[in-house]
Amino acid sequence: MRATRLVATLCLALLSVPACAQRLAVEVENFSTPGPCAEEDNVSFALSAAAVGRFRIQALHPPYVNAIRIDSSAPDFSGCNFGKTPHPTDPRHVFVPRTVTLYDGRDIAIVGITFASFWRPHRVPVTVAGRADAGFHLIQVFRKSGRTRTEVLVLYPADGYWRAKPLPARHLGVNAYGSSFLLGPIEQEGRPVVNIARIEIEPQPLAFTLHFTGGGQATVAITEISDMRTALDVRFLPAYDAKRAFAMLRSMYVADDNADASEVTWTTGPAGEAIRKPVMAVTSMQATAVRFGRTVRSRHNTSAPDFLFDAFEAPATEGTAPTGKKPG
């Protein structure tokens, strides 16, 4: 009975998509490979379409969140063959570390961090509320409430990776990150990346504008930060004009109870049936909405969010231009 309720909850969330005259179905391709290590991203799903101008990403609590009593977010290297240093074969480029508060408002704080070392040699220039900086390896977004600051969103500008999570469930107090995602032209450079030339951030209302090195841009508006979800509305300008990956979900799966994403659930139309399968059991699908997550409680990053990609829309008529390449 509990499993049935969880699936019903998942499907209801998946199907709650606002009506839109130009809603699209996109192709979702699975590039995942089995693996024993809980600290490696072996799950990859690429989203592509003939043309897309806009879509939405939501970070949602897993359906079992209210049943969590003990959360586990500690690293698990037990199945890894590289000790306690993820990606030991990556290049190591050295920087002068620093942490800068870029914005500190009533509800939102934005912080930039430069690491002592990173696997890519460059940093991406960023402007926050008109204040320009040479760039950082990590941009953090915090939701403020009184004296409490809760991190809900991060972007790694140098390789284009994002992480997001809703505000924690009240009985937990804190929650974990899990899966990450890319948005924009996906390229393969040792691993999937998005190459960003520069970033502009407006804190009120909160929005990122990403200028891609190959041309084109994306505006990412953070439309909700709550204990239900963190939601991102993504618009491309110019829009994609050919069949190519415009977004990717990156995650980890070792077993159903040791995963950041163990299942994929999708619909093929506004009234279509929700189909749910294990992440390693699918190759590709056409979807108007797709959710990557868990109904089996994971012992690793137990509270980490599910991710729902939906509200895909055709581009506006003002023209399109190619951006990015499909991952090989």
Task: Describe what you observe in this structure.
Keywords: Signal. Residues 1-21 form the signal peptide. The strands form 6 sheets. Strands 9-8-16-17-18-19-3-27-26-23-24 form an 11-stranded mixed sheet, with helices on one face. A 5-stranded antiparallel sheet has the order 13-20-2-1-25, with no helix packed on it. Strands 5-6-10-11-12 form a 5-stranded antiparallel sheet, with no helix packed on it. The protein is globular. Mean pLDDT is 88; it is low at 1-12, 15-21 and 319-328. It has a domain at 2-75 and 168-313. It contains 1 helix and 27 strands. It has one helix at residues 2-15, and strands at 26-30, 43-49, 52-60, 93-94, 98-104, 108-114, 117-118, 124-128, 131-136, 138-145, 148-156, 161-164, 180-183, 186-188, 192-194, 196-202, 207-212, 217-225, 229-240, 244-251, 253-255, 258-259, 263-267, 275-278, 284-287, 289-293, 306-313. 4% of the residues lie in helices and 47% in strands. The N and C termini lie far apart (42 Å). It is mainly beta and 328 residues long.
